[in-house]
Design goal:
The chain is an alpha/beta fold. The chain folds into 2 domains: about 160 residues, Glycogen Phosphorylase B (Rossmann fold), CATH 3.40.50.2000; about 180 residues, 3-Layer(aba) Sandwich (Rossmann fold), CATH 3.40.50.2000. It has a 7-stranded parallel beta sheet with strand order 3-2-1-4-5-6-7, with helices on both faces. Strand 4, helix 3 and strand 5 form a beta-alpha-beta unit. The longest helix is centred in the last third of the chain and has 18 residues.
């Protein structure tokens, strides 16, 4: 079904949720005409959108911005899209689809957010994990209008060896080094302090090869993390490479990926690592636990347990067979369950089901 749709995002930054928004909107724009977005005027998301995506600026200053409510209603009336899909609390709270617009409002959630006052007015809801869907139903949303559609990651293109050589030279990573990679926003809930503590417990070389930790990301905790790294004596072994709009070369360079989060509803970065066939060590958050429930795709460790995390990283670096097995199983899981074609098919089916059926 070719279904025009308007996608509304009110966050100001560029993190994992925004990166998935970009992937989904661009994938829809590659297949269908009439894909639009409503974003804050200076949103960095706009720089990465497909040329065919129409961008409608809306202030969305906060969750009580009445002017933005009226602006969004005007956009919906003007473009007449049958599907209006909102992301996270602010955009959803501000989106009030006019009854005469003939559009269905779908709220997509990637976290355990406050429901009442923010989401209850939508016509249908998407959770990107089964746990989130259960949470929505427990909070009073009708089960028959709650849908599970996971995130997807696109198959990464091969990274040229010359790019990897440049990366090693730029960041002073010896060619023979083991590379442990982690990425995300530098905020406490992402657990990067725990990762540094775990890394400090590793031998400085394993099987005769030095071990380097690459931390890709940025955020309010950046300087604190750097200071903690120096305090632990890790300065020569940790590379803070900043926020990476395209982390694919770093995944291609790495031997183990670590997701150290203290709270993680899903874990997009785990899917990205799997798409590169990189074995994963993750804390046992709700999202990671669901992704790796069947085992054989990674190693789960308790949240905020650097000792267990260090043990798991070392086990993978010492065991080539286990690294290969977990990497291959992760790639197979992404291909079979979290591919772009599969997830876009779910969205197409849902749009076809809901268009014309929204309550008046």
């Amino acid at each position: 079904m070719s279904c025009p749709s308007l996608h509304i995002l009110g966050s100001p930054g560029l993190g994992g949720a925004e990166r998935f928004f970009i992937r989904l909107v661009n994938a829809l724009a590659e297949r269908h005409e009439g894909i639009g977005v409503a974003l804050r005027p200076k949103s960095p998301v706009a720089r990465f959108l497909h040329p065919n995506v129409a961008v409608h600026p809306v202030p969305m200053v906060n969750g009580w911005d009445v002017w933005s409510v009226l602006r969004i209603r005007a956009v919906i009336r003007r473009i007449r899209c049958p599907v209006v899909q909102t992301y996270m609390g602010r955009a959803t709270r501000l989106t009030r689809v006019p009854r005469d617009a003939g559009a269905v409002h779908i709220a997509r959630l990637g976290g355990y957010y406050k429901i009442r006052g923010y989401y209850t007015h939508a016509h249908a809801w998407i959770g990107n994990t089964k746990g989130i869907c259960d949470y929505l139903i427990r909070n009073g949303l009708p089960a028959e209008r709650v849908y599970y559609i996971p995130n997807f990651v696109s198959a990464p293109p091969p990274v040229p060896e010359e790019t990897l050589k440049t990366l090693r030279a730029t960041w002073r990573i010896p060619e023979e080094a083991w590379v442990v990679l982690s990425l995300g926003r530098f905020v406490p809930k992402k657990g990067f302090m725990d990762l540094l503590s775990a890394f400090s417990r590793l031998p400085r070389s394993i099987a005769g090869r030095p071990v380097v930790l690459v931390m890709a990301g940025d955020g309010p905790q950046r300087d604190e993390l750097k200071r903690h790294s120096e305090t632990l004596g890790l300065g020569p072994y940790v590379r803070f490479v900043g926020w990476q709009e395209d982390p694919a070369p770093f995944f291609a360079l790495s031997h183990v990926f670590v997701c150290p989060s203290r709270h993680e509803p899903l874990g997009n970065v785990i899917l990205e690592a799997w798409s590169h066939a990189v074995p994963v060590v993750s804390t046992e958050t709700v999202g990671a636990g669901e992704l790796m429930a069947e085992g054989g795709t990674g190693i789960l460790t308790p949240v905020s347990d650097p000792v267990a995390m260090a043990r798991a990283i070392q086990q993978l670096l010492e065991d080539a067979g286990l690294r290969r097995e977990l990497g291959e199983n992760g790639l197979k899981t992404v291909t079979e369950r979290y591919s772009k074609d599969r997830v876009l098919g779910h969205y197409a089916d849902l749009y076809e089901k809901l268009v014309g059926s929204c309550p008046s």
